[in-house]
Amino acid sequence: MKKILVPTDFSIQADYSLHVAAQLAKKHNCEIYLLHMLELPMNQVDALNSRSELPEALFYLKLAQKRFKSLTNKPFLKKIKINEIVKFHQAFDGIMDTCKELKIDLIVMGSHGVSGFREMFIGSNTEKVVRMSDIPVLVIKNYHKTFRIKNFVYASDFSDENKVSFKKAIKFAKLFNATLHLLIVNTPSKFITTDDADSTFHKFLKNSRFKNYTINVFNDYTIEKGILNFAHHIDAGLIGISTHGRKGIAHFFNGSVSEDLVNHAKRPVLTFKI
After folding, report:
1. Domain residues for 266?
2. Both 135 and 11 in a single domain?
3. What pTM was computed for the model?
4. Which of 8, 27, 127, 200 has the smallest set of CB atoms within 10 Å of its CB?
């Protein structure tokens, strides 16, 4: 991991994500790309690119530059290479384009939590990033003075299509030096027997050389509650889930569980696209 993207609207939630990104950057010798999106009408963007007089657009550009200067002078960012980027794009498109252009390894972003995703990128753009990003997304809700992960929950149905995201989860478990707790949630509507769960785990892990993990089946009323309650039960520092992009969350996650989980979890959530 060498490049971390932190989209920012200069809110306190964005600062929380930057604090975590800074700790990861220092520990793993990464550089941070701070991205601020200015969503202006297209006629203003075209005119700005042609260097026309646009008081409103230039005002917001200069304001962003002033905020960047104030932000990057903070003590916790010392000795970290910070790259400042301002783009005139729709937020979601701008984030995705930046990731491809710079070959970003990880997106770290903030969220308000229970009230829904912070309108950091206008409405549902944050949720789009979580669902659609090919790059792992780490969502941070709270301030972390020290971001240390000892227990990392990876919830899945452990079907074959999750093997790619599982490999990514392993990389992060190694990166954090954390124990990976593999989790299947049993619900009244989607019940799986102990024998079937054991068989699923055995088949899924057959060719894996990774050993620092536990296997767990947790019973609850819903998938979301099961993940949150299990994470609380073992005092997990991080929850990992797989996303299907436009199809929503993988298999036993329905379309709303991913967003609900990220919104309701007080713990950091790391998402991997299948």
Report:
1. 151-273
2. yes
3. 0.86
4. 27
